[in-house]
Amino acid sequence: MRILIVEDEVTLNRTIVEGLQEFGYQADSSENFKDAEYYIGIRNYDLVLTDWMLPDGNGLDLINVIKQKSPRTSVVIISAKDDKESEIKALRMGASDYIRKPFDFDVLVARIEAKLRFGGTNVIKIDELIIDPDEEKIVYRGQEVELKGKPFEVLTHLARHSDQIVSKEQLLDAIWEEPELVTPNVIEVAINQIRQKMDKPLNISTIETVRRRGYRFCFPKKA
Fold first, then answer.
1. How many CB atoms lie within 10 A of CB 201?
2. Does the keyword Transcription regulation apply (predicted)?
3. Angle at Cα 173 formed by Cα 20 and Cα 198, nearest 5°?
4. Domain boundaries in the chain?
5. CATH number for the domain whose boundaries are 124-217
6. Topology at the third CATH level for domain 2-118
7. What is the pLDDT of residues 108-126, one digit of tens each?
């Protein structure tokens, strides 16, 4: 699962990122509104953890950006504001949770886990196809599909952007932690595995190649 941390206190930002990575999460970090907006525009996040006060904006405005791009992404506000009115305002603006500073890191992780576990936001259902990113599981007409790792992540990303053409560069940036260290042909390998392990056995077509532009999720569509 991928989480974006938006916090202008550099030490706190680094502590949260490193701590979440130890728990197995993919964590990106930003120290301001502008960079956070950029990341949200190019990647899918299961959860965004953002400070209320940022040097060039605030976390409440960021909620609107997130919900417009990915309505199912959970947003958790962290803030030094300890009054009831601020918490109510954040929740009414669309935050999934509100955590006051200073906070215990173990409690923070537990609350993040709860939001991801009970948020009901990650499962993708299209016709008779079910993709569950939390369990890394695909089910089609009651039959489980053996597709794991990067091919699973590529399929999931394309399914979440089913109305868009996604370029190789966008897929690399969204899925690989260090996209500059891999070559674009890894995308072709992942797409081929999707077609060989899933599309052919099930007699369906999920990924369409758009010449010179990238790929598009095209299910439901008979092969």
1. 12
2. yes
3. 95
4. 2-118, 124-217
5. 1.10.10.10
6. Rossmann fold (3.40.50)
7. 998 888 887 655 456 788 8
